[in-house]
Amino acid sequence: MRGLLAGVAAVALVASAAVAAGVPASKHSAKETARAVAAGLANPARADQAGDDARRKAADVLAFSGVGPGDEVLDFLPGGGYWTRIFSGVVGKTGHVYAIWPAAGAKYATKALADLEARQLSNVTAKVLGSGIVAASEPVDIVWTVQNYHDINNNGGEAAIDAMNAAVLKALKPGGSYIVIDHADPGSGLASTGTTHRIDPATVKAEVIRAGFEFVGESNALANPADDHKTNVFDPAIRGRTDQFVYKFRKPR
Fold first, then answer.
1. Mean pLDDT for the chain?
2. CB of 38 within 8 A of CB of 8?
């Protein structure tokens, strides 16, 4: 219990810092978000993945997102389901999580889909879309994507990026949040998306705003000044420690 309360306090401090830096509070109070995130991370059912939480700064970025109980979250291209499983505990019985792969990404979904289905998470829908890029059966509070945004350019260029951002806007409730986390290569535009698998944060910001979003703020939780921004993100010398940006956008009300 002492460890859980300490975690709540730490997350609350992070959430407060984000708001103080100019990030408007979500529909949840910082305390409510902190408790939900701490409980989600402490869930014994995810003990097998908890060892990666510190490296991913999970508590920090979740607090920044403002996610909380009862939220509907769309985890776009969820990889192995790391974030999906955390969100399941955070949003609770009154919320829902959609782990979504577009049809073009079906080959990446097989293992994660089987794993999520085997866990029988009652508040999770995991599926490959038959068509389209981003969609859920109802409007959601948060669309979340980690280390995937740059790949969209590799599979269709700016037209695909524009289509994805438009689909995200449509999928969100008015006032809903769009969280984009990716490997940074400042000043590169889209030139390194297919080589070092990085992207210029300024380009991402411009593209998402162009789609109709408001830029809310950013977190430096995953920043790494020691990263030279030129090494391939899969290189063992930097893998898991790249300089990453964490952006929060909002659909206008």
1. 89
2. yes
